[in-house]
UniProtKB/TrEMBL annotation:
It holds the Pfam family DUF4218. The lineage of its organism: Eukaryota, Viridiplantae, Streptophyta, Embryophyta, Tracheophyta. This is Uncharacterized protein LOC120267286. Residues 622-688 form the DUF4218 domain. Signal peptide: none annotated. Residues 5-85 form the Transposase-associated domain.
């Protein structure tokens, strides 16, 4: 046996689920060697020496790498005789081990190549593709625990199992903020009332131990109170911050059964992503749908899912080995700050990091059940440019999922495979865009597409200006890395339009300073100050007091289907004739459905047409099924629409938010429908779970 090839049978690290890096390097060396042996190749294919193929199948090199990483080498294949390496006859043991391979190679290779070329290289009557395998040990333990937990709570109980009763109690504790002592008292009372053979545990501590067996861990990581660093990895033993020298622990200690322990100034929570991705394949409900993106019928130029778009296909071309396994997971990441105590409570800014898989079909993708909270960045202050500090554990896990992968049991196919994962893009509002990408979204170069090519300038009177993930090896090749959030862009554009047309005090873009800028840049005499009266004339794009009253009366009488939109009548201020407190979805509906109706009889035709075209632009952009030619049309039309608006509204109306719609059709054409890349589902998730965070 050759000692320099012991790596061939050391695939897993210490019998665990992680692939040995030395094994991966060895596989690359083997494939490179085989590719330089023309006599033993079939075009761009080589024999696959994995345990299942056993040198009988000719596959593409990327497929061979995948099979070897998943199944390992065939037994005793230390000498690569089927791949052109001469047989070492001086070693009797090696000769005996490779005799079966030698017989096949000698004298039959040309005929076999001819036959395989005729019937197809994937044909193999002896290859058991659908052979069932036992789950990996971790998944097997999960199934065993679930089976035991599904037994009745006591003999004869038909309503609750041990698992359902305990999860119900945990939910009640979280929902009503029950203390641990109260939980223990309730559990003790239930134990006394139930039959003596019941399986309900008697304390919160025992309940947590039971829940921990589900294999969904939570890591508490100490961090600097100033957000400079986290005490993790090589810095786990530090007692103070290496940047600001702030101490890690408070001066007091807390008593525990294990003795006194130090109390950190601040800590973050990290929920590992890998176990939850594995659960998607361990469940009969979701496992079969995780291949939907690869198996559904795709129509040319029609996009109903990100897998139909160019960004996904480009990723497949740049990472062919990843694309070969349809069960590899594509991910999206979203973050947004929120105040758990509301506007009137304690000022506290919290940032959850949410990851969601895109493999699932449209009716499952982006649903709350498949949004995985991975990190809770603590407050009370906004993390701003230090968000990357808290993302370190997630970035490291994403790198491992890309470079190494994890052994996962697919219950739908009844066998184990090596699951890898890749982050497709991030989703956030425009301020958070800067935190995730490293690109400043303020100033003249705010647009991340135009960058230094922007022709923005500062107005003379108004004064307004008209990375993190690069550690991932594939990040630089992604066509879309950070999405422009259509939800917030549409909301901001709507508010600017509506407040300017309704002439809302303090919010309209039409004020004294903007009129002076009009005099300098636009030369529109009809909007300049009247020297005799010292007043500015009414603009054609703003409504009179009586017209504003008509709009507000109309809004108060609107009736919608339940769930379509909130009660807009509550947002109407009849004293100042304005709308207030409108949510993002209300702005979405008003922008796309109501603007053409609300201003039809009140604005000049040229103004109304321009606003209607803007409304239809967002309506077409946000369709659930889009076509490539439609997005190209929108990409050509939106500059013309904005030019029409420039001839109507003052220069102060146009800031970065009015510029960003130019790039939205391109992102839709490359990334797919916006429903998978905007903030609506994530904000709903945060709103629903806000009560449980604190």
């Amino acid at each position: 046996m050759r000692t320099d090839r012991e790596w061939m049978y050391n695939r897993l690290v210490d019998g665990r689920r992680y692939i040995n890096p030395e094994f991966l390097v060895g596989v690359e060396t083997f494939v490179e060697y085989a590719c330089h042996q023309p006599a033993f190749m079939d075009c761009d294919k080589i024999r696959c020496p994995c345990c299942k193929c056993q040198n009988r199948r000719y596959l593409l090199t990327d497929e061979v790498k995948l099979h070897l990483t998943r199944d390992g080498f065939v037994k005793d294949y230390y000498q690569w005789v089927c791949h052109g390496e001469p047989l070492d006859i001086s070693n009797p043991m090696q000769t005996q081990c490779n005799s079966s391979f030698t017989e096949e190679v000698e004298g039959s290779n040309l005929y076999r190549n001819m036959v395989m070329g005729a019937i197809g290289s994937n044909f193999d009557p002896n290859y058991g593709e659908n052979e069932e395998e036992t789950p990996d040990p971790k998944t097997q333990r999960l199934y065993a625990m679930l089976q035991a937990a599904d037994e009745p709570l006591w003999a004869g109980c038909s309503k609750h199992s041990q698992l359902s009763a305990m999860t119900r109690l945990l939910n009640i504790k979280s929902e009503f903020h029950m203390s641990e002592k109260c939980y223990d008292a309730v559990s003790q009372l239930m134990n006394e009332a139930l039959p003596t053979d019941n399986k309900l545990v008697g304390s919160f501590y025992e309940t947590k131990k039971f829940a921990a067996k589900l294999g969904l861990p939570c890591e508490k990581i100490h961090c600097c109170i100033n957000g400079c660093m986290i005490y993790w990895n090589s810095d786990i033993d530090r007692r103070s911050c290496k940047f600001c020298d702030h101490p890690r622990y408070k001066n007091r200690q807390r008593a525990s059964p294990r003795g006194k322990i130090d109390i950190p100034y601040q800590k973050m929570y990290y929920f590992p992503l890998t176990p939850r991705l594995q659960r998607l394949y361990a469940s009969e409900v979701t496992a079969k749908y995780m291949r939907w993106h690869d198996e559904h019928n795709k129509k040319d130029s029609v996009m109903c899912h990100p897998s139909d778009a160019e960004a996904w296909k480009h990723f497949d071309r740049t990472s062919p080995s990843f694309a070969l396994e349809a069960r590899n997971v594509r991910l999206g990441l979203c973050t947004d700050g929120f105040q758990p105590f509301g506007q009137s409570g304690k000022q506290y800014s919290c940032w959850p990091i949410i990851v969601t898989p895109y493999n699932l079909p449209p009716w499952m993708c982006m649903k709350e059940a498949y949004m995985f909270l991975t990190i809770i960045v603590p407050g009370p202050r906004n993390s701003k440019q230090k968000l990357d500090v808290y993302l370190q554990p997630l970035i490291t896990e994403l790198k491992d999922l890309w470079e190494v992968g994890v052994l996962t049991y697919d219950v739908s196919k009844r066998h184990n495979f090596l699951m890898r994962a890749a982050l497709m893009w991030t989703i956030s509002d425009f301020p958070a865009y800067a935190m995730l990408s490293g690109w400043s979204t303020i100033g003249k170069k705010a647009c991340p597409y135009c960058m230094d090519k922007s022709k923005a300038f500062s107005l003379l009177n108004g004064g307004k200006v008209s990375c993190i993930f690069w550690d991932l090896p594939y990040w630089s090749t992604n066509l879309v890395r950070h999405n422009l959030d259509v939800m917030h862009i549409e909301k901001n554009v709507f508010e600017n339009v509506f407040d300017t047309v309704m002439d809302v005090e303090g919010k309209t873009k039409d004020n004294a300073k903007s009129r002076e800028d009009i005099k300098i840049y636009c030369k529109r005499k009809e909007l300049e100050k009247n020297d005799s009266t010292g007043k500015y004339p009414k603009a054609c794009y703003s409504l009179s007091t009586q017209e504003k009253k008509v709009v507000c009366d109309w809004v108060t009488k609107l009736k919608f289907l339940d769930g379509y939109v909130s009660n807009m009548a509550k947002c109407v201020d009849m004293r100042k004739y304005k709308l207030f407190g409108m949510k993002s979805h209300d702005c979405h509906v008003f922008m796309q459905r109501l603007i053409p109706i609300a201003f039809r009889e009140l604005l000049p035709m040229s103004v109304w047409k321009a606003l209607t075209e803007l409304s239809l632009f967002f309506k077409d952009l946000t369709c659930t099924v889009i076509k490539e030619e439609d997005m190209i049309r929108l990409q050509e039309n939106i500059p013309m629409i904005l030019c029409k608006l420039e001839r109507i509204f003052p220069p102060s109306f146009f800031d970065s938010m009015e510029h960003l719609p130019i790039h939205l059709p391109y992102e839709a054409r490359v990334g797919g429908p916006v429903q998978y890349r905007w903030m609506f589902p994530f904000e709903r998730y945060v709103k629903v779970n806000n009560y449980h965070f604190y």
